[in-house]
Amino acid sequence: MGKTIAEKIFDEHRVDMPFPDTHVLRLDRVFCHEITTPIAITDLMSRGLDRVFDPTKIKAVIDHVTPAKDSKTAEQGKILRDWAKRNNIKDFFDIGRNGVCHAIFPEKGFVRPGYTIIMGDSHTCTHGAFGAFAAGVGTTDLEVGILKGVCAFHHPKTIKIELNGSLKPGVYAKDLILFIIKELTVNGATNMVIEFTGEVVDGMSMESRMTLCNMAIEAGGTCGVCYPDMTTVEYLWDFIKDEFDSKEEALKEYSKWVSDEDASYEKVYTYDVSELEPMVTFGFKPDQVKSVNEMEGTDIHQVYIGSCTNGRIEDLRIAASILKGKKISDDVRGIVSPATPAIYSLALKEGIIEIFQDAGFCVTNPTCGACLGMSNGVLAEGEACAATTNRNFNGRMGKGGTVHLMSPATAASSAIEGKIKNSQIFKA
Amino acid sequence: MKEFKGKVLFLDRSDINTDEIIPAKYLTEITKEALKPYLLEDLTLEGFNVGEDIKDKAVVITRENFGCGSSREHAPWALEVNGINVVIAENFARIFRQNMYNCGMFAIELSKDKIDYLFENYAGKDTEIEIDVDNDKIIVTAQDQSETIDFKVGEFDKVLVKEGGWVGYADKNY
């Protein structure tokens, strides 16, 4: 019997199997941010265990609330900053250099095919786009990861999703993943890895693959994963060129991180997505999804383009192509957060920031911002937001607020309209 | 080892998420105790009175996919500082379930039939539950009835409960 990519990664990283179905894995990366890590640090300190397993494998960023909004968030930042310094963690990204964790860590070249990665953040599954096993964990797992460089997981049962055909204009990775979550339901992939394959995924940019994998957790998935290919090698080339003589050689090395043809899956779903329409969520669960046509005309008060799902340059380019030369409705507030400083700079150079500003958007610094209602962009009671984020839980962006998840294209056209609107009329 | 017994809070809803268990705005707290007043603050559930219903409870019984959403361990901590260290459900979100055991708390999965039975026979009554850790039994008691229900947890989960969590175990073994 062949193996899935996740099983192969487990085989290469297993250090112990103390109980049946308990795989203790060696970690290649432990990522940290300022919300879930400080409490791990203070607990380790109280146990007299203030040390790290390998400072080169730990990467840290302040991203959720930055700049600090009050004394408590300032203290969280300080704990992380002091700890990184004390433990010689060189890759620590503080204000001016910081961005949304799942955007900045890949951009800095910290992810490789075949890696094991944990972070105290549920959307860590994003990094599976590179053919890695990347899982969100709680603070205790994070603590053990920091201290010992290991984490325990159950056997990586896998669901395979094969996406064939070609996407219509105006339909993007975000629409695909919303459709998939609707099919699987919010609990459909619990305790499982979701493999995204097929010609649609093969043709996707790394940015789009990250969008796809980012929301695996919204179906309950431990990790989303795509097979590494030349697109992966091209994305990473600047960081790996000293290790390989050519891109072909890198591809050959990374090609071992694919599932065998006779691998065993819990379920296999095959879709032809050629007729898929743009998708939008309507309720308080990410599987409450309708086509945008059914949702057109729904009232919104804010539009948010950003987050670890859709705050990358590809997303900003798509939104800007719709916003160019247009004004957003007087009835909505537009907020855009480029996910990293590099994305911000590129967007400036390409004139994208100007397009957003001319259209009436407020441009914020790179941060998780409005996505989880912790810092800027919180909704008032009864308000709705058209958002490119990943979670629409009740009150997610503020008590009594509603979030409609959608692609950057749909968010941009909805901003112009002042109500939910299909972008295809602008792109026709 | 902790004691796992006390009054039951019935939450008759599936997919209760981590934002409902503890809203993100309280993630700026850096002690567990500070989370105490905010448990289930944003839960939408008809007839649920957050202030009254949580008081003196030690066990939660609920439906499917409890704890979905964020990785925040603040969710189990908010339960813990309110004296709740057992959640019984049809199933759990992976990270939440692991967080419970990593803290030495119980996240017990029972079949849909058994969960339905508990709701039908015990919700609305003054119900108490005690977990017999060594024998894998849930002892349920209400005014007019008492019975035991078997449960299963993995060996690893049980070791974490007995050792009080994952940090101590990992520090000793790795």
UniProtKB/TrEMBL annotation, chain A:
<dbReference type="InterPro" id="IPR011826">
    <property type="entry name" value="HAcnase/IPMdehydase_lsu_prok"/>
</dbReference>
<dbReference type="Pfam" id="PF00330">
    <property type="entry name" value="Aconitase"/>
</dbReference>
<dbReference type="InterPro" id="IPR006251">
    <property type="entry name" value="Homoacnase/IPMdehydase_lsu"/>
</dbReference>
<dbReference type="InterPro" id="IPR050067">
    <property type="entry name" value="IPM_dehydratase_rel_enz"/>
</dbReference>
<protein>
    <submittedName>
        <fullName>3-isopropylmalate/(R)-2-methylmalate dehydratase large subunit</fullName>
    </submittedName>
</protein>
<comment type="similarity">
    <text>Belongs to the aconitase/IPM isomerase family.</text>
</comment>
<dbReference type="InterPro" id="IPR018136">
    <property type="entry name" value="Aconitase_4Fe-4S_BS"/>
</dbReference>
<dbReference type="InterPro" id="IPR015931">
    <property type="entry name" value="Acnase/IPM_dHydase_lsu_aba_1/3"/>
</dbReference>
<dbReference type="InterPro" id="IPR036008">
    <property type="entry name" value="Aconitase_4Fe-4S_dom"/>
</dbReference>
<keyword id="KW-0411">Iron-sulfur</keyword>
<dbReference type="GO" id="GO:0051539">
    <property type="term" value="F:4 iron, 4 sulfur cluster binding"/>
</dbReference>
<dbReference type="InterPro" id="IPR001030">
    <property type="entry name" value="Acoase/IPM_deHydtase_lsu_aba"/>
</dbReference>
<feature type="domain" description="Aconitase/3-isopropylmalate dehydratase large subunit alpha/beta/alpha">
    <location>
        <begin position="7"/>
        <end position="294"/>
    </location>
</feature>
<keyword id="KW-0004">4Fe-4S</keyword>
<dbReference type="GO" id="GO:0009098">
    <property type="term" value="P:L-leucine biosynthetic process"/>
</dbReference>
<keyword id="KW-0479">Metal-binding</keyword>
<dbReference type="GO" id="GO:0046872">
    <property type="term" value="F:metal ion binding"/>
</dbReference>
<keyword id="KW-0456">Lyase</keyword>
<dbReference type="InterPro" id="IPR033941">
    <property type="entry name" value="IPMI_cat"/>
</dbReference>
<keyword id="KW-0408">Iron</keyword>
<dbReference type="GO" id="GO:0003861">
    <property type="term" value="F:3-isopropylmalate dehydratase activity"/>
</dbReference>
Automatic annotation (TrEMBL), chain B:
<dbReference type="GO" id="GO:0016829">
    <property type="term" value="F:lyase activity"/>
</dbReference>
<dbReference type="InterPro" id="IPR033940">
    <property type="entry name" value="IPMI_Swivel"/>
</dbReference>
<dbReference type="InterPro" id="IPR050075">
    <property type="entry name" value="LeuD"/>
</dbReference>
<feature type="domain" description="Aconitase A/isopropylmalate dehydratase small subunit swivel">
    <location>
        <begin position="56"/>
        <end position="112"/>
    </location>
</feature>
<dbReference type="InterPro" id="IPR000573">
    <property type="entry name" value="AconitaseA/IPMdHydase_ssu_swvl"/>
</dbReference>
<dbReference type="InterPro" id="IPR015928">
    <property type="entry name" value="Aconitase/3IPM_dehydase_swvl"/>
</dbReference>
<dbReference type="Pfam" id="PF00694">
    <property type="entry name" value="Aconitase_C"/>
</dbReference>
<protein>
    <submittedName>
        <fullName>3-isopropylmalate/(R)-2-methylmalate dehydratase small subunit</fullName>
    </submittedName>
</protein>
<keyword id="KW-0456">Lyase</keyword>
